[in-house]
Amino acid sequence: xxxxVPGSPRRGPIAEFFVGLWNVMNFTRRLIVNIIFFSLLxxxxxxxxxxxxxxxxxxxxxxxxxxxxxxxxxxEQFTADPAxxxxxxxxxxxxxxxxxxxxxxxVLDAAKDDKRIERVVLxxxxxxxxxxxxxxxxxxxLARVKASGKEVVAYSEMMDQKQYLLAAQANEIYLDPMGGMxxxxxxxxxxxxxxxxxxxxxxxxxxxxVGEYKSAAEPYVLDAxxxxxxxxxxxxxxxxxxxxxxxxxxxxxxDAAKLAEGIDQLPAGIADVQGDLAKYAVQQKLVDGLKxxxxxxxxxxxxxxxxxxxxxxxRQVSFDDYLTRLNAGINPVDPRPQVAVVxxxxxxxxxxxxxxxxxxxxxxxxxxxxxxxDNVKAVVLRVDSPGGEVFxxxxxxxxxxxxxxxxxxxxxxxxDLAASGGYWISMNAxxxxxxxxxxxxxxxxxGLIPTFPRALDKIGxxxxxxxxxxxxxxxDITRELQPxxxxxxxxxxxxxxxxxxxxxxxxxxxxxxxxxxxxxxxVWSGAQxxxxxxVDDFGGLQAAITDVAQRAKLGMxxxxxxxxxxxxAPPFSQFFxxxxxxxxxxxxxxxxxxxxxxAQALLPRALSQTTQDLRFLQGAIEPTRGVPxxxxxxxxxxx
Length: 639
Hints:
This protein is 45% helix and 17% strand. The chain has 24 helices and 22 strands. The strands form 6 sheets. Strands 10, 13, 15, 16, 17, 19, 20 and 21 form an 8-stranded mixed sheet that branches. Strands 8-6-5-4-1-9 form a 6-stranded parallel sheet.
């Protein structure tokens, strides 16, 4: 059919082709958009109906075992979106899973007093990468469960020494006959890049720092750890390790010296049992017996209530299900005065940062929200951070000071790590709590500038030009760094160190000289930091909450509400997480091939250490307006 308008110029065949092609594409585009829109609308309606008719959870019966089978590390705050977590959990995808420490403690303390919970069963094989302070806090909670008269049973196929710190609290520990468990000690080894960067690639990394123990940037300028770094690391690591042995010995009624002796004689001991690590663990009294998972299930079914429908044959409730029950009992509108908890976990960077990182702007906003909320009477800052950018750390510290000016007491609770910038944001609190095995201190400043003229020369590229002064373009990394420019940078870093030690001295009511003696970039355990006046008392998060409530005169526990102030998830994310956590929603997601395919692309694999280190170097040299170098208060001091 000819659609040309009379009198209009006639299109050529090529133009007609492309016009027709465009009309087809435009029609197809609109069709696809409409299909997607109506499909999503239909899905939304279906989801609402499913949730409305999903029904409640099964009642919790007497003689139930609480099964704690964590996957991933213990964290202070989830790093993934609620919908993403629920989506992956519903599909049985545990890659990137995390367990909030606060949830673990709530579950254990509730189970201790719950008459329906007969015992706690620990399956710790997939617990990963947690710090000593967090593990000790969970171990204390397990000890409280055991002290209440409830049985704690641990089972593992293969267990490392961090997982074992929790298992050791159990009344009985069983290991698979083909499994393994041994203590080996604490080690901390890093990769060093000087030869690769400088000799191979021609990249010259210039380090400016204050403090002979400030070793965070050593891998970029040395081929091995400095004498000072090894001395300082071994000092705090030995303290943490001896405490670990003491905790194990106390829980298992063993001798700490004999545990240490068993490690020293490890080759001979393993040879005596012909390489059977499970048998060796029994011989060392680290475990009570060797059983398969099925045999442990039969044992617990005999002791408790058998349940043929349960996976292991005994009546049980999972950690997630029990936590859901606890959360369902929370009153969303609580008129009581509040203690606000703000979590500062991860590296400290400028601007807005997602959960799992600390933003100079975003974390300060959370603290400001607590200051502006009349219902909030006191604040606990929970810190688990190796530090990061100095200016971002200072933004957060200022908000702590403003809270105190507003007559709202602030107490810091240090987690596994509160070092360098992590200490900067902590120092102005009314009181600082830490675990004896918390890693803290590292009061020092450094800056990094790599220059690339030699690297560019290797490929025949050169930098040249003119400037109106001798310092115009002096900080261009494609040019050699002149000595007088280095002098400017070192002067800036010196000033940053004076700021750091001066603020600590004021906050801790000490002289600058006294702070300098324990600063200079040196890392301490929590126990060592308390001896040196950097920490006030030992205790976990609950101790900090109780303390700050008393300072605000809120009365006994129960007279006030504890509320976490966090960035809220978008409405759809909250809706989807509710759907995915329902039994019918989880079943639908598991059976959906589309959902399973999508889940495989949700999270990238963890970066290697080398990639992480080089990304840190890249971040360190990102330009900052008005300053020649980004001042960093960072500590590579985790375990």
